[in-house]
Design goal:
Elements: H1 14-37, H2 52-70, H3 75-92, H4 97-129, H5 133-137, H6 145-160, H7 163-179
Length: 184
Amino acid sequence: MTNNSGQATGRPNRLLVLGSLAVVIAGWLIALLIQQWVDEPVLKVQEGFSTFAAFYIVAQALERFLEPIALYVHGDELVELKAKLKEEAGSTGQPDTATRKTFAELRSNRQIGFFALATLLATLTSGLLGLYMLQGVFEVENPPSWLNSFDVLFSGLVIGAGTKPLHDLIKRIEKAKENADPET
């Protein structure tokens, strides 16, 4: 984004943010349609594996799938701007504010776009494979249909965020289980 004087602000483009939300919602609606065709979850976790292994595997696969695509979305521009920032910092001790803001804006726009794409793909995958994060954590007998619908969106958002937050969540849940009172 630019301000009234035409300088980069470092903030993401509002239309990109709104478009990304629209993509995520569209992915959710398509996943809901997919759920109509899938009677029950396609994948069942094998004994000896955590329920979250499936979520982690899907998140890893999506990250690996998107990596080569990322090279073509402002990749060269970001490399050039990063080099320019280093050069400016080396010569003056402080990089130019406009260059820093342009770099920050380009990087945040790219992150938002890729989060939307990853969430779209993760939501569709969750709907197709029946990956339900909330139902993997909480025991729910005969879940109402609205819970499956919400859980697909929630699972898509979690998987779309990538493996780092998912790995941290898994560690916290496992630690909570270890510390839990065995009589409860």
